[in-house]
TrEMBL record:
Signal peptide: none annotated. NCBIfam families: PRK00431.1-6. Pfam families: Macro. Coiled coil: none annotated. It comes from Luteipulveratus mongoliensis. This is Macro domain-containing protein. Residues 1-181 form the Macro domain.
Amino acid sequence: MSVRRPVPPPIEAVEGDITTQQVDAIVNAANSSLLGGGGVDGAIHRAAGPALLAECQELRRTRYLDGLPAGHAIATGAGDLPSRWVVHAVGPNRRAGQTNPTTMASCFESSLREVVRVGGRSVAFPAVGAGVYGWDVREVAEIAVRTVRSSALLTHLDLVRFVLRGEKALRAFERALATPPDPA
Ligand code: AR6
């Protein structure tokens, strides 16, 4: 069990490439197949090399024969990446009619649970769902920041970083982080 932190960790937003982050775990915006794709998923698999795909194939064979459902997350090793783990989170596909914000929130909460389960203390998230899956990045930012801020798992972490591609995504997360949290 990891050590609890007395105060909540920093939650920050930066523009950049998630594959170069020096954190314990990076989150992948995966799909149910876990076998790679475009966007950030493609970038992570390219940078991680074949060891990551092999682990994902093994998970499909042994645990997720029908794929990983939307809203769920699972950690693997990170191949050649600087991080130790990749947490594969499946966002709801808005273009396929998956519009439930609770499923999106579950992606972020399940990812934090996986990071803590494997013993990670720092994590970088992309804007899950805000690319191929068609979510407005402002909605993703609001859900992500609200979910992470209110997670009981935060006390086990030292850093949560959102790593965004482009000015619009960065602004959306900066704005969400600048909004005071809901009163408990
Ligand atoms: N670092 C950080 N963010 C990135 C990077 C990167 N290297 N590359 C892209 N983004 P997407 P989704 C941003 O489409 O919407 C894949 O094919 C991107 O600008 O990667 O959840 C999967 O296999 C956007 O803001 O993920 C699935 O089939 C955000 O990452 C499907 O796409 C998410 O865009 C998942 O779609």
